[in-house]
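Notes to self, 2-isopropylmalate synthase:
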Amino acid sequence: MNPRIIFFDTTLRDGEQSPGVSLNLKQKIEIGRALAELGIDVIEGGFPITSPGDFEAVKTLAKEIKGVTIAALARANKKDIEVAWEALKEAEFPRIHTFIATSDIHLKYKLKKSREEVLEIAKEAVKYALSFCPDVEFSAEDATRSDWEYLAKVVLEVVKVGAKTINIPDTVGYTVPHEYYNLIKFLIEKLILAGYEEELKNGSLRISVHCHNDLGLAVANSLSAILAGATQVEGTINGIGERAGNAALEEIIMTLKTRKDFFEKELGYPLQININTKKIVPTSQLVSKYTGMFVQPNKAIVGTNAFAHESGIHQHGIICERSTYEIINPEDVGWTGSAIVLGKHSGRHAIGFKLRSKGWQFDDEVLSQIFEKFRTELKDILKKIDDEYLEGILIDLFWEKE
Ligand code: KIV
Ligand code: ZN
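result:
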């Protein structure tokens, strides 16, 4: 048996940590519902100890959203864990997500603790969380800047006491795909040597990845980790999050879907992705509206230009056969279709296609006249030409609409 990839969404926790973002309870619940409809496996609702708002959000999500795992974040101490559990306890599938940093930088400057002390704290936190809830995730914050042997020791010890998901965050977006691949492989090999091969294979033990985007590598690093054997991937919708954000889940999902054959060949088993991809764009737009974080037009999958074609050669290709310049069907991710945008790079085919699809009838000779007018008089004046404007000019120039 091979585990399927689990998608863990932290839009409501790490995503809400984006500067300037503050969601109210109603908005969080609406986003939570959208994530559940999208097919996300684990929704991290918040960090309950940090504010009454976070506590209430996790509590309400836990009560109202069924059929998915609801996670709450807690530092590795009793109080955080108790409060997280208090918020979570009505969930159908609750998960306590506890964390402590493992890098020497964090140990020295933030925690002021030795490696041995942190190892003990991690073990105790997992044990304490397990006394409330069977599903416990442990995160080794700043894992990618930690000493690999020490990190492996922490991972093995928390697995030994019962953590079922071990997250290896690239907290400051520092790693690169090849290095992260090696780190995940290294940790999995350590777990296999310690006798956990079967659990890793059947999914009762998972290595999870959580990447930040400081170098623009969050999605690439996450995919690399999946190739190395990680079976849970964490991220946010639209890639929102602290600083440069988290890995954009929609990009990871669509890469796995679009390049399924490649991933299956590399992994040696069939990939099962239970995501309703048609909900991606509506979910992205909902998150953008409520967070006030606008999605850049050229953002993969969910940007307004992601399926828009302006240059003549591309427009001709798309009109003849979509797959010439599109690797995803826009309708599969929730757009209404590709957009042929008329601009200075557009060609004859696109002008003809646009006008004909609006009901105009004309032969090729008229099209040549229209295009000539467009090319010589309009093309350089206007950056983007909307359909109605083009139509209006053509009405004046050539004929009356039939
Ligand atoms: O980036 C990070 O390390 C985190 C952990 C708390 C999982 O968000
Ligand atoms: Zn994070």
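- The CA atoms of residues 49 and 79 lie 8 Å apart.
- The pocket of 3-methyl-2-oxobutanoic acid (ligand 1) is lined by residues 14, 99, 139, 141, 167, 169, 171, 210, 212 (CB under 6 Å).
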